[in-house]
Amino acid sequence: MPTSLFKTRVTELLGIEYPIIQGGMLWLSRAGLVAAVSNAGGLGVLTSSHFPTKEELRQEIRKTRDLTNKPFGVNINLFPTTRPVNTDEYIDVLIEEGVRIVETSGRSPEPYMARLKSAGVKVIHKVPGVRFARTAERVGVDAVAIVGFECGGHPGLEDVTSLVLIPLTTDAVKVPVIAGGGFADARGFVAARALGAEGVLMGTRFMLTRECWAHPRVKERLLEAKENETVILGRSIRDNARALLNEQAKKALELEAKGATLEELLPVISGLGEKKVYETGDLEAGVLHCGQIVGLINDVVSVKEVIDGIVQGALAIQKRLSA
To answer: Model-level pTM?
Structure first.
């Protein structure tokens, strides 16, 4: 079994150089960013759910393959959505296109496991708690990604941080564990490895890279953001999501305090508003998901610089601790 800082069961499973994975980030996980992560030695992950048709997903997979000959994955969103999504059709496409790594998130991937495994697909399931990790292992996933309370996107309902969740999960399951929520640099990477994780999952850090297509004003705002400028939305409907505190987020919190229904909340928290934020730079057009780690990021660099910085920094930390 590999035991070095960078050679883990995750790198062996996925065929990548470094156990650094770009999380599926809805609108932002397009070919350019995904290929850049894979080319730098990590694993880039396309997000399927924002493609209206399976053929558009197919074209993005092919575009990604034109940009990299390294492994990359596709995220299959199993959360409830406001528009009809034929998950089986999307799985057909990724199998037909030769994608051999899938990240699933949301509900259990059990209904799709037989098809994915028969096609030789490696499945990473993203979970917010230990009991979900155990279930994922039971249904046959190859690895689990555990996301703590500080993560952007969808943390669990129990407000448990990565520092606690990671060792609890590595103690609970035998499959490799990937740590998500609160990771952006070498210090976090080494900490995750020390806690038993065999890789890290990063979203917010990759938002602040040159290859991410988000509007420059979005990146400028995130560079200014402090670690205490994010809030959890959706608690009242049991669909937690961490976002930057802007006027839309404040409006959502006010509606929740008044007992708003899902239908009343959707116009405020809809992903279509976030898409407009990314496209236009209008920071109040929708909610803007990011993790608390945003307070630790102070530059916009290339994806390669991010990954090389983690690698070199982790080696320096290892040397310092060994001394």
So the answer is: 0.95
